[in-house]
Amino acid sequence: MIRTQMNQQIGWLSAILLLTACGNRNEKNSIPAAEPLSVNQVVGIGKVIPQGGVVELAAPASGIVEERYFEAGDKVAVGDLILVLEKNVETLSLQESDAGIATQQLQVESARLALEQERIVLDDLRRRHLDAVELLTVGAVTGEEVRRLQKELDQGTEQLNKVENDFRLQQSRLREMQTARAARENDLSQRSFRAPAGGTLLTLTPRTGEAVTMHQPYGSIAPESPLVVMAEIDELFADRLAVGQRCTIHLPGDSNIAASGRIARLSPDLKRKSLFSDSGSDLEDRRIREIEVSLDEVPQTLFIESKVECRVELN
Length: 315
Fold this sequence. Notes:
The protein has 315 residues and is α+β, with helices and mostly antiparallel strands. The protein is 40% helix and 27% strand.
């Protein structure tokens, strides 16, 4: 019995020594930890836009399109008439204002003539009153006559003040009507949509007979400016970006270089990944830094709003 127990103890001790030896051998043969890889290039998703961005056209008024003068793809200059809304109501309103102003101008002229007449009458009363005062000193007229002329002079002065007030009132009404006319003329001008900038008309949504809503977009213009690439670089590499770094532009999934250029501008802050996200409900908590890449040459394969990959050579 005692010998059997000793044999069991010797067996357990041998097993422990064997496991310890194997553990030491594994530690000696283990692979050392790899050093971090050095990243010298980063890829961001971007799109091609005119420098300064695309001009979104907002409707200055609501109504039905009466006439359309351009189509998407046409060249437009600043002030070109793009489309016109129905404007019968605004035209009639402006004509009504013109008629009212013409009538009021006659009222102002009539009040001016009445004012001139009252001034002449008052000047005559002043002269007669002064003459009577002088004649009173030599006894040529009575005091009663002087007092009568003084009363007429006071009444004439009061009448002149009334006529002057009427003249100013008629002038004020004329100015109000002219201001109202300017507002109606502006309403009429808002029925004509003009190009705020020169360039290529990218989109023009409403057709003749369709409705547009005030302040809602109805088209867009690409200004006549060089094309650039706006791209988003992950925040992990934000501090390694710098103006002047070389970039290559690739079409999605294509390893061939479509264009090349340099970083011309960096956003001063980190932004949400929103410009190129597939969904507005994307909850990924990542930030990006925007870069603007000026292109050395724009190939025919790149179009405005084209989605591209931008590979940046990091410092």
